[in-house]
Amino acid sequence: MLRRIFVLLILLSWSAAALAADVVDATGRTVAVPSQIRRVLPAGPPAAVLLAAVAPDLMIGWPSPVSAQARALLSPEAASLPQVPRLTGRADVSAKIVALKPDLILDYGTVSPRYSDLAQATQRRTGIPTILLDGSLDNIPKAFRTLGIVLHREDRAEQLARFAEALLNLAAGPQTPRRVLSARGADGLTVDEPGTDVTEVFTHLDWHVLAPSGSGTFRQASMSEIRTLNPDILVFSDPSMINTLGDSAEWRSLQAVRDGRALVAPALPFGWTDEPPSINRLLGLAWLAGRDPATLAATFNAVVYGHVLTPAELHMVLAGVRALPR
């Protein structure tokens, strides 16, 4: 009899250990997560970059392709991870997710009805605790700390949170008013929509984001429309635009290009200004606020991505990058 009671007490203690304190995520939902978390699935690319910074050893994989060039600039744990299904896409991948046996699903980014509903639906379909953290720039330190508590990586999360606060402070204070057009693609004609997470870096600097009329996060534009908008600054996210700007007489005819105010943002290991819209945007924020890109790249890569850049790697990351003329 005593032995049965003893065994029951052990089982109860194990059961209690499997439960964690409730976590209130960015949607206001209260989610019970396990106290012992060994496998975490990022729902989309922004969550993957956040998780790889805090706890790459707990991350199951990348939900989008990561090039060999990018992997070479990451920590060994993050660099070796496979690609896994993406939950924030349009397809229902619940069965594939369950098969991976994560203890927790992490989403990070825009707190909109779509993503709030997705977090709830994912947890309902899979039975796996799913949390959504606010991915806005100002909220990055809080996101680090919250995730650190959930994963019991408080020290690492606090280091990252303080570093994020320092970068946010570099961009604080009055900024010169600018009219900026942000575009992607090798031809520079896919323009980012104002008021979205992919243009938050510019609005955080109090710059006015321009785009041709239309709808959608990414809009096709013509050179005529861009010329009519006449931005003070052009910021491109595709490295191919370095060559396009040099080869195209049409682009060189724009005032911003002639004045040296057409910038191509670094894209390795992740974009500095937009994709994915995660913690990597802190680099673009500090760079466009006037900070030295070489110092930013070297420091951020070591502190956040866990890899110290060699001189050759730093040169590769910064190929064609320069500071914004004051």
Order of helices and strands: HEEEHHHHEHEHHEEHEEHEHHHEHHH
Shape: globular
User: What is the radius of gyration?
Assistant: 22 Å
Number of strands: 11
Beta percentage is 5-15%
Number of structurally distinct domains: 2
CATH topology of the largest domain: Rossmann fold
- The CATH class of the largest domain is Alpha Beta
Describe this structure in words.
A hairpin with a 5-residue loop joins strand 1 and strand 2 (30-32). Strands 6, 7, 8, 9, 10 and 11 form a six-stranded mixed sheet that branches. A three-stranded parallel sheet has the order 3-4-5, sandwiched between helices. The protein has two domains: 19-170, Rossmann fold (3-Layer(aba) Sandwich), CATH 3.40.50.1980; 179-317, Rossmann fold (3-Layer(aba) Sandwich). It is α/β, with parallel strands linked by helices and 326 residues long. The radius of gyration is 22 Å and the shape is globular. It has 16 helices and eleven strands. Helix 7 packs antiparallel against helix 8 and helix 8 (154-170) runs parallel beside helix 14 (281-288).
